Amino acid sequence: MAFQVEDYLREDKLPHIWCAGCGHGITVRALVEALAGLQIDPTSVVVTTGIGCFGKADDYLNTHCFHGTHGRALAFATGIKVVKPELTVFALMGDGDSVTIGGNHLIHAARRNVDITAIVANNQNYGMTGGQLSATTPEGSRTTTSVYGTAEPEMDLCSLVAAAGASFVARGTVYHVTQLQKIIQDAIQHKGFSFVEVVTMCPTYFGRYNWNQTLIERMNWLKENAVSKARYDKLPPEKKESAFMIGKLVEKDTEDFNTKYQRILQKAQNQG
Amino acid sequence: MSSELIKFGQGNEACAEGAFKAGARFYAGYPITPSSEIAEIASRRLPQLGGIYLQMEDELGSMAAIIGASASGVKSFTATSGPGFSLMQENLGVAIIGEVPCVVIDVQRSGPSTGLATKPAQADIMQARWGTHGDHAIVVLYPSTVQECFDLTVEAFNIAEMLRSPVILLTDEVVGHMREKFIIRDQVKVIDRKKPTGPVEKYLPYQPDEDGIPPMAAFGDKYRMRITSSTHGPDGFTNSNPVNARQMIERLYKKIMDRADEITYIKEYMVDDADILIVACGYTARVAKAAVKQLRNEGIKAGLFHPLTIWPFPEKQLKKAALDAEKILVPEMNLGQLVYEVERILKEKEVFGLHKSNGQPLFVREIVDKVKEVAK
Ligand SMILES: Cc1ncc(C[n+]2csc(CCOP(=O)(O)OP(=O)(O)O)c2C)c(N)n1
Ligand code: SF4
After folding, report:
1. What is the number of structural domains in chain A?
2. Which helix (H) or strand (E) holds B91?
3. What is the DSSP pairing of strand B102-110 with strand B116-120?
4. Domain edge (last residue) among B263, B294, B326
5. Distance of CA A22 from the midpoint of ligand 2 (Å)
6. Cβ within 8 Å, pair B64-A68
7. Is B129:B140 a contact under the CB 8 Å cutoff?
8. What gap in Å lies between CA B149 and CA B35, rounded to an integer?
9. Which stretches within chain A are classed as H helix?
10. In the prediction, which pLDDT does A272 show?
11. A75 vs A48: CA distance, rounded Å
């Protein structure tokens, strides 16, 4: 019995609610393509979400779903995965969700190394609540709560998570969809906490206030500025300002939490 | 042959043992005095039982993790005190609207905020009732002895499983830390949540049976499970239709309130001929009982109404106990919480409060003196 892409989707819930030009649909598509590619039974998948536009993703998925609170998806996912290691567990989060309100859970999930795949749709602002400032809003950008431009520098998600000890860290974009699917597949197969940042777009808010571009031009901007690590390293300094790395940034073999915990169980039971 | 284990230990220890006996196999928490012994015991005992202990990054995460584990089919609990209990309120709401059974133990200490970090209080009585936002009902049990800590923790899990709802076990620093003889009962009644049985395609995670409670699949079952924090229809998808919203909110409320009698535990001491009825819970109920004894020796007809289930408050039971009493006294370690509930229920009676909020428990003498004062 082969699973098709449609087996992971709630087609009865489509069309989705996202705005025209929003990157969230592309990201969800990459996720279901990745699942179909790996032929994972949808009833062995749990998708946790937070609150935000991307937090609506579970509405379109035919897996087990947990729609939690803003910023806490990873903490719910942690409880699920540690007691049911046989399930494939995701946390789908926006940038507000994952790092702004939920940053504490994020760094500790990276450190704890529970085998969860975290996918963060970084659109540089809060789409759901009307385009306010996020911790990933680039310094100087205008949002509905930084009309004169923000004085705060942005957080680099991948560096943060890598520094916290994540054993798999990758970045993709909604332009590079084939690569994104592959990254998500690798993240799922990686044993331990895996982190995927998807550089995406919110034309309705962040785009309107900051881009001087059409959507097509923005896609081309992604195409030009998102480069592999090898290419990034060779770029002249002035190009590095807008460019960013995509692909796998960290991938190391580690024992995940559940594997280590097995030994703790044994020790406890032997000692009685 | 019975293999009951007689122990001499703390209320906190009895709570932990009660949880294991009820079948809890997952604990997530963040240490805080005066509850930390529960975490320490869970970290030692759960692995022996094949369960899991997780120390989370904060109480927001602790509450989230126990909900996630319970939704995956494993009975789960956490323990905390005031500051942590405040952080848990956000996701306590998820357990309520998402209908995920779990047990939260709050060993009350003196606040507000960091307050008198390790001193007792009973000032979370209203936080336990109304701490999380939005309309809701909640079950709160409050033991007063170490044995009750054990028995009511088992009961808290049973009620949680039966009603598909979080249950709060409220204790206080005195009850949590005092040592008494208690029995780890061998045979306890253990209730497990209802599981779905019908065809997989027809399963709706929030379609209630006649008792108002939907059967609960676990993540990983063949039934597709959806848990949501949003107002939802029977299918677990967001639904903002006002008729649906009303039905959902009322069902969540009624599933608890309609079965209040089944989950109500009270104790009464010399209430039948009491002229003055004392209403007290937790540690204060013990002091009040001693006060009643002393007052009776002095010829004053006092009695004690001691609710172990404090929410839903045993309204009917209190009315009955107070039928012939002229005056009511509500001593509590706070500036007045339970007293307002008692006033609401016994409108026609004279209700007095005795309030102490300085980090010290109430003393027998203080209650005796107050009774004599109001009895005049
Ligand atoms: C505790 C809490 N604070 C604030 C909100 C309001 N809120 C809902 S979504 C959101 C931000 C969403 O932004 P992001 O996570 O980046 O996702 P996006 O909508 O951009 O996809 C906020 C602030 C909330 N739901 N809960
Ligand atoms: S507001 Fe922005 S993030 Fe939300 S759906 Fe629209 S484009 Fe997407």
Report:
1. 1
2. helix B82-97
3. antiparallel
4. B263
5. 5
6. yes
7. yes
8. 13
9. 24-38, 73-83, 95, 103-112, 157-163, 177-189, 208-210, 215-225, 229-234, 237-240, 257-271
10. 63
11. 9
- Taking contacts as CB-CB distances below 8 angstroms, the residues of chain B near A65 are 225-228, 236
Q: Model confidence over B161-173: pLDDT tens digits?
A: 999 999 999 999 9
Task: Check whether B248 has a pLDDT greater than 70.
Answer: yes
- Single-letter amino acid code for the residue at B115: G
Residues of A with CB under 8 A from a CB of B: 13, 42-44, 46, 48, 51, 58-59, 62-69, 71-72, 75-80, 82-84, 86-87, 104-105, 108, 261, 264-265, 267-269, 272
Question: What is the least distance, in Å, from the CA of B48 to any CA of chain A?
Answer: 5
Claim to verify: residue B93 and residue B202 sit in the same structural domain: yes
Look at chain A and count its residues: 272
CA–CA separation, A200 and B2 (whole Å)? 64
Residue B133's closest CA among B83, B89, B98, B99?
B89
In this structure, what token pair is assigned to residue A268? 């406890």
What the block records as the tokens of A129 is 């609540």
**Which pLDDT does position B376 carry in this prediction?**
85
pLDDT in tens, B355-366: 999 999 999 999
**What is the distance between the alpha carbons of residues B141 and B308, in angstroms, rounded to a whole number?**
6
Residues of chain B above pLDDT 70, percent: 99
Task: Give all strands of the β-sheet with B350-355 in edge-to-edge order.
Answer: B266-269, B302-307, B276-279, B327-332, B350-355
State mean pLDDT over B38-62.
Answer: 98
Contact, A230 vs A153, CB < 8 A? no
pLDDT band at residue B3 using 50, 70 and 90 as cut-offs: confident
- Which range of residues forms the domain containing residue B309? 267-375
pLDDT band, very low/low/confident/very high, at A1 (cuts 50, 70, 90)? low
Considering the domain architecture, whether residues B331 and B222 belong to the same structural domain is answered as no
Q: What is the mean pLDDT of chain B?
A: 97
Give the residues surrounding ligand 1 with Cβ less than 6 Å away: A 51-54, 70, 94-97, 121, 123, 126-129, 134, 202
Q: Which of B227, B230, B232 has the highest number of chain A CBs within 10 A, making it the mutation to test binding with A?
A: B227
Residue of chain B whose alpha carbon sits nearest to that of A12: B237
Query: Considering the entire predicted model, what is its pTM?
Result: 0.98
Residue that is last in its domain, among B231, B263, B295? B263
Q: Using pLDDT thresholds of 50, 70 and 90, give the confidence band for residue B332.
A: very high
Centre of ligand 2 to C-alpha A93, Å, is 13
pLDDT at B80 over 60: yes
**Averaged pLDDT, B67-77:** 99
- Interface size A-B, in CB pairs within 8 Å, comes to 136
Backbone angles phi, psi at B174, to 5 degrees: -70, -50
Q: Assign residue A30 the CATH number of its domain.
A: 3.40.50.970
